[in-house]
Design brief:
Layout: H1 2-10, H2 16-38, H3 41-57, H4 65-85, H5 108-116, H6 119-130, H7 135-142, H8 146-165
């Protein structure tokens, strides 16, 4: 596989400067998505690298920046699903091991509530509200039907809102 990635990177059709710009624009949002959904820094790091390797190795038709970004998130989502199937990422793990100074814009209460959600709920909320994908695009990325995305996203929002409005006992 490393050989195919090396060959793909050396192909004249892959412009290294264009890829560098694409990587700089997408690596942080993709890593944040992988971290928030998996809740494990090691998994996010590994899947980020594998996503870009597969992206480079694929023989893709001509795509604009939005389509390329969507395709990259599709690869990462499929890799996450593979991890869940293989039980490499458990549903019951501790909070993401990201320090607050790495992520100052997220508030502690929202983060705690977000981490209490199920993997699928975290995934849908992240894709919709952080990455800005619409229902149709989320359906394509996750393999769900558009109607299912609408319902599951509605429920995930309700779960997050309920968690924010009613903190666990012992917290004010």
């Amino acid at each position: 596989m490393a050989d195919s990635v090396a060959n793909a990177a050396d192909r004249p059709s892959v412009n290294q400067d264009d890829f560098r710009v694409f990587y700089n624009r997408t690596n942080r949002p993709l890593w944040a998505y992988l971290l928030r959904v998996s809740r494990r820094r090691d998994v996010a790091d590994d899947l980020l690298q594998e996503s870009y390797c597969r992206f480079l190795a694929a023989r893709l038709p001509e795509m604009d920046a939005a389509e390329s970004r969507s395709y990259l998130f599709r690869i990462a989502t499929n890799l996450l699903h593979d991890c869940w199937r293989d039980k490499q990422v458990s549903e019951v793990v501790g909070p993401a091991d990201q320090s607050r100074e790495d992520d100052p814009e997220m508030r502690a209460d929202v983060r705690r509530c977000f981490e209490r959600l199920k993997s699928r709920e975290r995934q849908l909320l992240w894709l919709a509200h952080v990455e800005g994908f619409d229902h149709k695009e989320i359906a394509r990325l996750t393999g769900l039907r558009v109607a299912s995305v609408r319902v599951l996203l509605f429920r995930a929002r309700a779960q997050l809102a309920a968690a924010l409005c009613h903190p666990p006992e012992g917290r004010v």
